[in-house]
Each structure stands twice: as structure tokens, then as C-alpha cells.
Design a protein that fits this description.
17 helices, 2 domains, about 475 residues, Rossmann fold, about 30% helix, Glutamine Phosphoribosylpyrophosphate, subunit 1, domain 1, six-stranded antiparallel sheet, seven-stranded antiparallel sheet, binds iron/sulfur cluster, single chain, alpha+beta
Length: about 475
């Protein structure tokens, strides 16, 4: 398998800056959100009259060139980085979507997934509306063009009442940027004040800091935040759902460690995930009478990069020394050039090399953020054994993923998930580890620091919104954003 990580969702950004080159600012904001989607990038810029859009397949730095940015003139902008599933749909589904409406041009970029998009789409098809893509974001854009209301804010409010599921949005009219978050609060979205006047919104606070924002607040669940020449205004369009359903996977895997969400820093949570895991690992080994006089492991290594803070936390609590074991080529899998067959057979070895000296003759404890399909874990363990590791103990900083995500994260269908219908011991045997420890749901939530207010459905099967489980059994095209 080339890469089995859950696919990043999408990054969105919006900027209003009266005296700045907003296209260039949006570019650097997108650059800071690259980790949330590497398949396509796009931006829409408004100058008070017209909206210009540029989007293409590829990394942010490949899509935009100095000449491209110079043609995108204006003081209002939105941008998007996207993960997409199939080659043929890459360009069609790239965002922002832009349409001309009775009320002027409109562009939209979306992070999330509506669980009722099929019904909304059918309803619009029956009304004679055509679509150019399979994306629910286009359905949302068309609904805004169709819905009644005196202002864009009114029309957004009308549409929000019909949207069920995850949506953090940036919407651009000819003279405004709107930031919208669903009432469950699934995906993050924050707004900050720019140092030279104006405002920016982004999926992660790291992107806002890149632009120089200092005063930053979350766009709260159910809010519409409007960025315009007049001021920044906040409207509670829908009452927030209580408890909220923030995606806990943002903390485990997706977000960059410098992200602070709802006052909680991702890096700190990942260290605590490692600490909690160390306690549960120790308990498990003790219960199984595996503890020896010389301890329970010789070295703790992370699967880079997102597991590194957790491995540091694990080492601190367990007393087992931390070291690097894998070196990751960060750029493999982010190229459109397919490997030759003989290279493909090398599988994860193309992406990871082992530092033999750090694992040879050692009992190695490997910290990884998650196991989704399980295609990578076995080969990683094999690489360690080939490098002379005596024992390999896998420790995972979240519980087994037993259910698919319907809210915008591509984890595959039920049958794709290694933990669906398999016990931990069966998985351990399948991947060839000496032991396998998953963090418990309670341990995960202790690390996050809040008992409720989070979606944990991929671990528990308890979805915060009604979903069509059959669609994840029989297959469907997933609009992952
Ligand atoms: S199902 Fe999992 S990945 Fe999807 S929103 Fe919930 S916690 Fe996040």
C-alpha cells in the first residue's frame, strides 16, 4: 500500500485586507494548511465588482506562480487545499466553486461533509438544477444561489437550516468574506485580526499566525462571521448543538501541532496521549506477567511525524529512552509520478528507512497515531525485524477504528477497517507484532482534557448525526474534503 493514513480533510482560508495584496497573503495561508490536503489547491479573489478564481491539481507551490497571483487582484479572498479520491474527479471537484447568481458572483470553499447531501442533490436535480461535479460543496453553492433572502447572510441562514453534517465554510461575495461553522462544530475554524488592518479566517490557528494575526478566536458552532470593509460582525445563525461534536481525530492526527482549538493545543494533547498510553501499556504488560527485571522495553520510537510528541510523552512516563527509529521521506506519495513495479514492491520501504543502530538487538516500543486499514503496520514491523529488532511492541494513541467517518474523513468502508470485526489479539497476529496496545476511549478523552463535546464515532459507532450505515457497507463515492 502506498499510503494508508486517513486522508487529510481540507484546509480553508479567507482574508479581508484593505491595503494588502490578498492573493499573496492567501497563498501563504494555504501554504501553512498544505498538510490538510495535497491533491488540489485554489483561490478566489474579489475586487468589489468581480470574482476571479484560479485552481488546479497539485501542491500549493505548484499550482500558484508569481504571474498567477498577480492576476488575482482585490481585497477579499478565499482559498482551499483539497484531498480528493479519484484521478478523474480531481479537477472537477477542486475548490473554490464559483457561480454567477441573480445577486452577483459567489464562491465557496468547504471543509467537511454533509450527511444529507444525496437528498439535497436529488431535490435540486428535480428542480432542474444541473451539477458539474459530485461534490456536496457544489450543492451548497447552488442552494445559496437559489434560496430566498435580502442579503447573503440571510440566504446562508436559510441554507444552514437544511444542512446536516460537517461544514466549516468560507464564502466570498463581491465585497465580503463569510466564515460559517456548523452547529455541531465538527471541523475547526478560527478568525484573527491582521496586523495592518483587516481580518483572516482559517482552519488552523497556525495559518493565522503565519499571516501575523495575534488576537485570535474560534468561529463558534452555528456562527456566521462576516469580514468586510465596515467591520467584523458575528451572528449566531443557529443555536449550537449541545454537547458539541468536535472531531477528536483533529488532535490525534490531522492538525498541525501548533494548532490551538477551543483553547487546547494539539502538541500538548499528543504528549498527553503518549503519557496515557504508557500507563495503559504498563498495566497491560504487568497483567500479562511480561515485566522483567530489565524493564519492559529498550527504546521508544515514533512513526514520524504526527506520533513524535506522543512518543516523547510515552518515554517520560515509562522511563524507556526515546530515540528516532524511522526516517520518513516526506515527499513520497505527494508526487503524481507512479513508482515502477519493482519499486512499488518495496512498499513502505520507499517511504521509511530504519536507523539500524537504534533498534538492533533491542525491544522496540513503536508509537503510532492510528491503524486504519492496517496495510502499513505489518510492513513497518517487518522493516524493524530486518534491522535486527528483538521484539516489536506496537502502541497506538487512539482506540481501534471500527466505524467509517461520514463527516469528511476518508477512512474507507466497514470492510476496509482492520478493527472492524477483529479483536486486538487478532490484529496483533495479523500485523506480526509481539504485542499491540490501543489507548482506551477514556484515556484518549483524559488526554484531550474534556469528557464530552467530541465526536468519537469512528471508535464507538455513536454518530452525533443520523447517518446511512448501509452506504458504508455497499460502497459510494465519498466526497472527502
Ligand atoms: S467519525 Fe472520527 S474522524 Fe469522523 S468526525 Fe467523528 S471523530 Fe472525526
Amino acid at each position: 500500500m502506498w499510503d494508508e493514513s486517513p486522508k487529510e480533510e481540507c484546509g480553508i482560508i479567507g482574508v479581508f485586507a484593505p491595503d494588502e495584496d490578498v492573493a499573496r497573503m492567501t497563498f501563504f495561508g494555504l501554504f501553512a494548511l498544505q498538510h490538510r490536503g495535497q491533491e488540489a489547491a485554489g483561490m478566489a479573489v474579489a475586487d468589489g465588482q468581480v470574482i476571479s478564481v484560479y485552481k488546479n491539481v497539485g501542491l500549493v507551490s505548484h499550482v500558484f506562480r508569481p504571474g498567477t497571483l498577480e492576476e488575482l487582484k482585490g481585497h477579499y479572498a478565499i482559498g482551499h487545499t483539497r484531498y480528493s479520491t479519484t484521478g478523474s474527479s480531481l479537477m472537477r471537484n477542486a475548490q473554490p466553486f464559483m457561480i454567477e447568481t441573480m445577486n452577483g458572483p459567489l464562491a465557496l470553499a468547504h471543509n467537511g461533509n454533509l450527511v444529507n447531501s444525496a437528498e439535497l442533490r436529488d431535490e435540486m436535480l428535480h428542480q432542474g438544477v444541473g451539477f458539474s461535479s459530485s461534490s456536496d460543496s457544489e450543492v451548497m453553492t447552488m442552494m445559496l444561489a437559489r434560496d430566498a433572502g435580502a442579503t447573503w447572510e440571510d440566504r446562508i441562514k436559510v441554507a444552514m437550516k437544511k444542512w446536516v453534517g460537517a461544514y466549516s465554510l468560507v464564502i466570498l461575495s463581491r465585497d465580503c468574506v463569510y466564515a460559517v461553522r456548523d452547529p455541531w462544530g465538527f471541523r475547526p475554524l478560527s478568525v484573527g485580526m491582521l496586523p495592518n488592518g483587516g481580518y483572516a479566517v482559517a482552519s488552523e490557528t497556525g495559518a493565522l499566525r503565519t499571516l501575523g494575526c495575534e488576537t485570535i478566536r474560534d468561529v463558534k458552532p452555528g456562527e456566521i462571521v462576516t469580514l468586510s470593509a465596515n467591520a467584523l460582525t458575528v451572528t449566531q445563525a443557529l443555536p449550537p448543538v449541545s454537547p458539541s461534536a468536535k472531531c477528536v481525530f483533529e488532535f490525534i492526527y490531522f492538525a498541525r501541532p501548533d494548532q490551538t482549538w477551543d483553547g487546547v493545543n494539539v502538541h500538548a494533547v499528543r504528549q498527553r496521549l503518549g503519557e496515557e498510553l504508557a500507563r495503559e501499556f504498563g498495566l497491560r504488560i504487568e497483567t500479562e506477567n511480561r515485566i522483567r527485571e530489565d524493564g519492559i522495553g529498550d527504546v521508544v520510537i515514533p512513526v514520524p511525524d504526527s506520533s513524535t510528541p506522543a512518543a516523547i510523552g510515552f518515554a517520560r512516563i515509562s522511563g524507556i529512552p526515546f530515540n528516532d527509529g524511522f526516517i520518513k521521506n516526506r515527499y513520497v506519495g505527494r508526487t503524481f509520478i507512479e513508482p515502477t513495479d519493482s519499486l512499488r514492491k518495496r512498499g513502505v520501504a520507499l517511504k521509511f528507512n530504519v536507523i539500524d543502530e537504534n533498534v538492533r538487538d533491542k525491544r522496540v516500543v513503536v508509537i503510532d497515531d492510528s491503524i486504519v486499514r492496517g496495510n502499513t503496520t505489518g510492513p513497518l514491523i517487518k522493516l524493524l525485524r530486518q534491522s535486527g529488532a528483538k521484539e516489536v511492541h506496537m502502541c497506538i494513541t487512539c482506540p481501534p477504528i471500527t466505524h467509517p467517518c461520514f463527516m469528511g474523513v476518508d477512512m474507507g468502508r466497514f470492510e476496509d477497517l482492520i478493527a472492524h470485526k477483529r479483536s486486538v489479539d487478532e490484529i496483533c497476529k495479523k500485523v506480526g507484532a509481539d504485542s499491540l496496545t490501543y489507548l482506551s476511549v477514556d484515556g484518549m478523552m483524559r488526554a484531550v482534557g474534556r469528557a464530552d463535546g467530541f465526536c468519537q464515532a469512528c471508535f464507538t459507532g455513536r454518530y452525533p448525526v443520523q447517518v446511512d450505515l448501509m452506504s458504508a457497507k455497499t460502497g459510494f463515492e465519498r466526497g472527502t474534503k
